[in-house]
Each structure stands twice: as C-alpha cells, then as structure tokens.
Specification:
single chain; mainly beta; Immunoglobulin-like
Length: 323
C-alpha cells in the first residue's frame, strides 16, 4: 500500500501521512457505493496522534473550471494506538454531507478528472486545515463498470431508467435511448356503420375498422385504409381520413393537419386514405403531425354532413403500422 505525504503551505501544526486504499467487490452487480480511505495522523514533530478523537472532512472535487465540489462529508473519527483511522467515503456514519456521492459521474472522467481533498480538525473546534488534494485513479473509476452493467449510457448518451416491457427495443429519441415496442402491423376490416356522434357538432361522424393500440413516445404510427363507399343519393363534401379517439370516447380527431380530405360522392366510389403521426410524451398536435403517448382507438374517420346515410354493407379494409 503506497504512502502519500501531503505537505501544503498552510500546514502549520501537523501533517498527515495518507494511505488511500480502495476495494472492489468481486460481484460487480453488488458493488459497494463507497471508497475505502485510511490515514495516519501525526503532529508537526512526526508523532502519531494516538487514541485521539478528531474530525475529518473529505471532498470529491472536479478538475472542471472552478474546481467544483461534487460531494463532501464530515466525520468524527478516533485514531488507534498507531494514529490510524479508517472511513468509507460515501458510506454510512457521516456527521454531515453535501452533494450526492451516488450521482457522481465517474464515466465522464475524460471531461473532468476527480480528486480527493482532505481537511482535518484535530482540536474539534470546527476550524479545518486543508491537507491538500490527491487525484483519484483506477479503482474508484470501477464505478463506471457498475454503470455500464446497468446500461446507463450508450456511446456517452443516457438510457432512460423506465422499465421496458417484454419485447421492447431501444430507440434513440434525439437526446436519450428509450425503450419502445418493436415494429408491428395490424390488418383490420369492418363494415361501415351509420352513427351519430352524440353531443358533437357534426351531424354524422364515424370511426370504422378500429384497433385499440397503446403508443409510446418515440414511435411513429402509419395508417392506410381503403373502402368502396356508396349511398342512396349524392353526397357532397364527404370527409375521409385516418383518425383516432381516446378510450374515454372523446371527439374523433383526424390525422390530417387540415382535418378531413373531402370528396363528392355521386356513385359508388373507391376511396383510399393515408396518414402518419409521430408519438411524443406530451403536447401532441395533429396539426404538426404529433400525438401524445397513450392508448387510442385508431381507424378510418368518415364525416358525413349531408344527413343521408351511407350503404352499411360496404367494407373498410386497412393496415395500421407502428414503428
């Protein structure tokens, strides 16, 4: 175990022989979140301070501009017959702490190295003497291995801590890796049903060939529908567009940013509707091509303002792809 002597200019009455020893658990998954620290306290004459109660303040500092303190703790310790004391930095028993030891980013050492600053109060007066700092190397950075095992970052980019569902894949959302379901395509078919939207401002609105789907942020939903539509008489401005409705039965909302595509129906007509939306955490707006994460009924929206019924035996076919 190497002995490191820290001799600083403000050390007037005593000096400290520091012995820094760190340990690593053989089982990385159970790695202790602490650094073993051992030191011998001596007075200015080199005599060990034996069986003496003292205070020690240990701080993890960064080499970044201003040398910010990432974590600091103060402990009451008692030296043994050799003047030796032992603590675990980040472990239980500290009299006072500031900052978060567990939140220290050991991975990004290439950006800012970490050092250990030591201060002593041998008279327990609250006045600490700076004993100097020593760069941390090698073993403390094994914490990075623990973070890698728990997949906190990929290529320096964070991985979301939310638990994935079975079959989920990692997806890059532009700032972090998140879990998202794998791509899936749903094929659906349903007859047209004449239906009045109760309490709505539209005389007639229908969501057909529906599938209830749960969407997660980062996904894209693509819907394509085809139907041969007829009626007993001409219908002007028949609205056709992929649409969605939340499970509480709210208003039906079209995928298209400018609401429904419209056609004039004078005879049985083959119509095709296509739309896509990107799923966001919140603030979704189909006018800009987004939808909030959540569970929805998704299908073909048909808006009929004429009051004239469509043929109910006509069939809507479609595919809904989530990717």
């Amino acid at each position: 175990m190497p002995i490191i002597k820290l001799n600083t200019t403000n050390m007037k009455q005593f000096f400290l022989l520091l012995l820094l020893a760190t340990g690593i658990s053989t089982a990385i998954a159970q790695m202790p979140k602490a650094i073993n620290y051992q030191a011998v306290a001596r007075n200015a004459q080199g005599q060990a301070l034996v069986n003496q109660a003292i205070k020690v303040r240990l701080s993890i500092i960064s080499s970044a501009s201003g040398s910010p303190t990432l974590y600091s703790e103060t402990r009451n310790v008692t030296t043994n017959a050799l003047g030796l004391f032992n603590v675990q930095i980040g472990g239980p028993g500290a009299q006072a702490t500031s900052g978060s030891f567990t939140n220290i980013d050991w991975v990004s050492n290439s950006v800012a190295a970490k050092s250990l600053k030591v201060e002593l109060d041998i008279n327990n007066t609250g006045a600490f003497t700076d004993m100097g700092s020593q760069s941390l190397a090698t073993v403390p950075y094994s914490f990075a291995a623990d973070q890698a095992v728990n997949a906190l970052k990929i290529n320096g980019n964070p991985v979301a801590e939310s638990a994935p569902d079975p079959g989920d894949l990692l997806r890059w959302n532009g700032s972090a890796w998140i879990s998202a379901p794998s791509a899936a395509t749903h094929i659906i078919s349903q007859n047209i049903i004449n239906q009045t939207l109760v309490g709505g401002s539209l005389a007639f609105q229908f969501l057909g060939a529906t599938k209830e789907i749960t969407l997660k942020a980062g996904q894209t939903i693509i819907a394509t529908f085809a139907a041969s539509i007829g009626a007993t008489g001409p219908i002007n401005n028949l609205g056709i567009n992929p649409a969605y409705q939340n499970t509480a039965g709210s208003n039906i909302i079209a995928f298209n940013a400018t609401n429904y595509h419209t056609i004039n129906l004078n005879a049985r007509t083959l119509v095709v509707a296509h739309g896509a939306l990107h799923v966001v955490t919140s603030g979704g707006n189909p006018a800009i091509g987004t939808i909030d994460a959540g569970t929805y009924r998704i299908g073909l929206g048909i808006r009929n303002l004429s009051g004239q019924a469509l043929n109910q035996n006509d069939v809507i076919n479609g595919t809904i792809t989530i990717q």
